[in-house]
Amino acid sequence: MIELEGLTKRYGEKVAVNNLTFSVRPGIVTGFLGPNGAGKSTTMRMVLGLDRPTAGDVRIDGKHYDQLKDPLTYIGALLEAKAWHGGRSAYNHLLCLAQSNGIPSSRVREVLDTVGLTAVAKKKTKGFSMGMGQRLGIAGALLGDPRILMFDEPVNGLDPEGIHWIRNLMKSLAAQGRTVFVSSHLMSEMALTADHLVVIGQGRLLADTSMPDFIARNSRAYVRIRTPQRERLLDVLHEAGITAVQTGNGTLEVDGGKSEQIGELAARHQVVLHELSPQQASLEEAFMQLTAESVEYHAHTDAPQPPPQPPQRQWGEDWRRS
Ligand SMILES: Nc1ncnc2c1ncn2[C@@H]1O[C@H](COP(=O)(O)OP(=O)(O)OP(=O)(O)O)[C@@H](O)[C@H]1O
């Protein structure tokens, strides 16, 4: 388990990570989602003790990273691609890592095999492609056979075959009961990989929810209606037992695929409609909307600030209505 409590990091005036509290559980892939600059890498660096929190705490199986004996056997991480000496071979790079962390050297061949680099194990890493570099980084994360794995944007720059491989690897690691924490700025990628989602924007927690719950809430069908007789239509819909929500831009929204029924009701009561359109929210749109709100919230500091809301409400209820 990785547990964050009120985790905060400031760089001068900049609040990179703002009071994050959540847990990353074993046996599932937890996606850590946020736009560029949201604070994902800073959070991961604090998990590994590479950055010191300004406030709050982060623990791995109840301990701080620097309290772990042989930390690579607890938690393996891919933070930056190509964080190694280019003049060394892949084998020697992993061997050094193994020897300095009390890991048997026999493990080096095993992880090279797992990531598919056996054939190039003796080649200098400076000639490696981006995809080979990512695989080597992942081999390093797997070296200590840790129960917890953390990957920062592992699919960046990979070809479709590499992306497919990493996706399956993460799923199989979680299926073995390990904790898998993976960051991305792409909802579409997370939708295919993660069982659980933690979404941040501007360093703040925006959502902490299961992927099925996120999909159920955000891929709902709804009907958008524009009418110059809004109050009249609201009354007609209300009488028919249909709940409509007024949005900020003057339209009405009704959950579900009831456009025919609404059209017929409007005709029967002679209500003019300017638009009656079935909509299907995509997960990518839901994510963009969710994080765009957080950017806006921070950009207009003169605007009246809304009262703090529990994270579930901020993203679940309001995203289509503002
Ligand atoms: N050492 C630092 N000094 C000052 N500001 C920093 C430092 N490291 C990160 N930041 C700032 O903190 C914010 C969060 O950065 P971070 O790299 O954690 O975001 P991210 O979500 O990982 O983004 P990306 O997807 O682009 O990697 C950014 O505004 C960044 O500019």
TrEMBL record:
One of its GO terms (molecular function) is ATP binding. CDD domains: ABC_BcrA_bacitracin_resist. The keyword Hydrolase does not apply. The keyword Zinc does not apply. Residues 298-322 are annotated as: Disordered. Residues 2-227 form the ABC transporter domain. InterPro entries: AAA+_ATPase, ABC_transporter-like_ATP-bd, P-loop_NTPase. Transmembrane segments: none annotated. Keywords: ATP-binding, Nucleotide-binding, Transport. It comes from the Bacteria. Pfam families: ABC_tran. Belongs to the ABC transporter superfamily. This is ABC transporter ATP-binding protein. The lineage of its organism: Bacteria, Bacillati, Actinomycetota, Actinomycetes, Kitasatosporales.
